[in-house]
Amino acid sequence: MKQHHPLEALLRPAVELNTAIVCLVCALLCVFAPWALALTPSVGIGMGLGFLAFGMYRGRQAWIVLRYRRNMRRLPRFALRSDQIPVSTRNLWLGKGFRWEARHTQRLHDSQQPEAESYVGPSALYRWARRLENRMERVRSLHFAIRLLSADTALNPFRPLPPVGGIAALHAVEWNEVDVYLPLGERVGHTLVEGTTRVGKTRLAEVMITQDIARSTNEVVICFDPKGDADLMIRMYIEALRAGRGDEFYVFHLGYPGMSARYNAVGRFGRISEVATRIAGQLSGEGNSAAFREFAWRFVNIVARARHALGQRPSYEQILSDVVNIDGVLIEYAQSTLAKHHPNAWEMISDIETKLNDKNIPMAMKGRDKRVVAIEQFLQQVKIRDVVLEGLRSAVRYDKTYFDKIVASLLPLLEKLTSGRIAELLSPDYHDLDDPRPIFDWQQIIRKRGIVYVGLDALSDFEVAQAVGNSMFADLVSVAGHIYKHGIDDGLPEVDGGQSGKVAINLHCDEFNELMGDEFIPLINKGGGAGIQVTAYTQTISDIEARIGSAAKAGQVIGNFNNLFMLRVREERTARILTDQLPRVKVATRMLVSMAGDSSDVDSGVDFTSSGGDRISTAPEPMLEPANVVSLPKGQAFALMEGGQLWKIRMPLPLPDKGKRIPSNIHDIAQGMRDQYSTGERWWEEVMPPPVHFQVPAEFRDGGRPAIYSPPGGGGGIEVEESSDAAAWSD
Question: Which tens digit of pLDDT belongs to each residue from 159-200?
Fold first, then answer.
């Protein structure tokens, strides 16, 4: 509706409807009874068309007011199947919405005035129906009536509002919704999604991940899920199948080591010192702990260099064993090295060893293996220049009791990563050819353009989940640095005419504050040069500060996110991250003015005067208040992107997908996750229709029965069991 008055005033009776009805009646009279208006039939038709045109114009104005008032109480339903989500090679689709401008702030201000309460709040009949439901709840014979009153259908005049909470007016202030897109070029600036629990962060992640998988076979998609959301994992698998990328899909889940892929966080590196950095970086560096972390870094680096020199791949299990038994590492390395430098080395060492006893062993070497003492005394006599050997010697020279104390802070971390069956996942046996579980690393995934779901099972064991997540992040930072310097293929020849170079690496990190450390800052600060596009999901800014331990570093992290999506939050300081970046706009306020005064002129016939009217004034107000962010309904968000443009968006509710057969191991993991976890991200289910079963698409049929998708070569550790049960092909 065009603005013709100082105040728009949409929350009012639709008086235009009266004019539209009168015009329609007049048009009918002009056409069917022109004589009643003293018109000839030919003139009556012309007059009727004129009345009809003006009536339609006024009717459209009335419809805008009625629709605006309806949306204030209930927005139109917006739901899509995943295959209906738009996929573009230039933009990322976010949902339906509109660009928030000054007029929307004005409309929101108007909806909060007392005189607008009857148009914004539930009607008296609605409140009566809800009270009646509560009264009849205990009467079993009236359950049928309760079901009628609470039926979620447009035919129900007392239809309950969707369980999304919040204030519908935040989105109802604009009735012309459009598709909202984020240009893909903006994603390299990284995206931060803030929102409290159960408001739709996972749903937004599903929308984005669906497009990332379907957009191109040349993009990498990695999802970190600390809690474990079964529906998100299934969504990623279904989208991988739909995009023809089933052989590129990997599942790593700490809660299901028997069915998970395996991963060695320290098995691949550019420089051997990275192994020590990834492990020691997870130790506390505050106060007195800083010195112990430096000692831990040094000893891990010593044993990692030794294993690397022996031609062995480092692993958590091996490093734990070596730190606990540093003597064994020295003996093994000496056996491999000394004979090359001195042909009679071991004869001399054996002679020294036979002469050793408790009296002639140096005090600093008490408790050490006699062979270690003999090797040390031999090397004091025969000078051999070997950097790795010198490092091992410096470690064993420490008093054993003192050595155990200075590495004490390292052992709990390594035990977290090597306890139980988790050791099979994080310290894989590369020589066990009978183990069907694949082993992957990030560089391999990126070269393969893979899709990885990482479930860390944080609800079962938070400490282990955090340690593994930190290790994966540290490894990813190292890989990003390598890609930045050498590219994806690192000098390998092109395959099938493809171009080697930068690849979009879409990194989705749910609850990323639980995974991040100091290494996360260079990842988002410089990772764009390696093609990494981080989409981080968290609840509050305080979560980031608590994890990093510094408000300045938390601000440094947030400052590297160019795109901000703000769902409902409960912390005002978090909401101000958005609202403090917005300009102030002028908001008009109407004030009723009434004045009266008497006359002091005795000769005048006027005893008093009075006047009344409306006074309109404007005052600068924030475009959004933190209270507006706190009042957002579930599934809605404010988006600040593309250099400060503010958009109001709402995500689609999910409709059941057309059926696809889920492999047994993927299904078992998902079912276990549903049984153990209650993430609360299925807030829409109370308004969703019952599950609908679809026929299997033709491309998935084979000889009249459902075809079972089998990834080529069984990649990703996905085993598909054959079945002819068509009932399995449902949503």
Answer: 888 888 899 999 999 999 999 999 999 999 999 999 998 898
The alpha carbon of residue 475 and the mean position of all alpha carbons in its chain are separated, in whole angstroms, by: 20
Domain-ending residue, one of 160, 183, 206: 160
Q: Are residues 299 and 404 in the same domain?
A: yes
Q: Does residue 673 have a pLDDT over 90? A: no
Q: How many residues does the chain have?
A: 731
Q: Provide the 8-state DSSP code for 118.
A: H
Q: Are residues 410 and 293 in the same domain?
A: yes
Overall average pLDDT of the 412-425 stretch? 86
Nearest to 261, CA basis, from 667, 715, 666, 717: 717
Strand 645-650, strand 91-99: pairing = antiparallel
Q: Which residue has the tokens 């409140």?
A: 127
pLDDT digits (tens, 9 = 90+) for 470-519: 888 888 888 888 888 877 877 666 554 444 567 899 999 998 888 777 77
Token match 């409290």: residue?
196
Task: Return the HEC string of 586-631.
Answer: EEEEEEEEEEEEECCCCCCCCCEEEEEEEEEEEEEEECCCHHHHHC
**Distances, alpha carbon 693 to alpha carbons 84, 114, 656, 690, 706, in Å:** 17, 47, 8, 10, 14
Q: Where does residue 596 rank: exposed (0-12), middle (13-18), buried (19+ CB within 10 A)?
A: exposed
- Smallest CA-to-CA distance from 207 within 674, 528, 535, 533 is with 535
CB neighbour burial string for 467-505, b if at least 16 within 10 angstroms, e if fewer: bbbbbbbbbbbbbbbbbbeebbbeeeeeeeeeeeeebbb
- Residue 27's contacts (CB-CB under 8 Å, 6 or more residues apart) are 47, 48, 49, 51, 52, 55
Contact 471, 499 (CB under 8 A): no
694 in any annotated domain = no
The count of domains in the chain is 3
3-state DSSP assignment of residue 8: coil
Residue 94 forms part of a structural domain: no
Beta 705-706 vs 701-702: how paired, if at all? antiparallel
3-class secondary-structure state, position 392: helix
One domain, residues 294 and 387: yes
Are the C-beta atoms of residues 173 and 544 closer than 8 Å to each other? no
**Which amino acid is it at 562?**
N
Q: How far apart are the first and last CA of the chain?
A: 43
Closest-CA residue to 252 (of 270, 267, 264)? 264
To the question of pTM greater than 0.90 for the whole model, the response is no
The answer to whether residues 284 and 377 belong to one domain is: yes
Which letter does DSSP use for residue 717 in this model?
G
Q: What share of the chain is helix, strand, coil (3-state, %, to 5)?
A: 45, 15, 40
Give yes or no for a contact between 633 and 97, defined as CB atoms under 8 angstroms apart: no
Longest dimension (CA), the chain: 138
The residue that leads in pLDDT, 242 or 521, is 242
* Nearest C-alpha neighbor of 622 from the set 578, 675, 686: 578
CA distance 453 to 222: 6
| Cβ pair 724, 704 in contact under 8 A | no
- For 275-314, the pLDDT digits (tens) are 888 888 778 766 667 778 888 898 899 999 999 999 998 9
Give the Cα separation of 507 and 450 in Å (integer): 12
CA 130, CA 137: separation in Å to the nearest integer?
A: 11
In a domain, 3, yes or no: no
Closest CA to 528 of 271, 214, 184: 184
> Is position 450 within any domain?
no
> For residue 412, what are the domain limits?
273-416
Q: Which SS3 state, helix, strand or coil, does residue 584 take?
A: strand
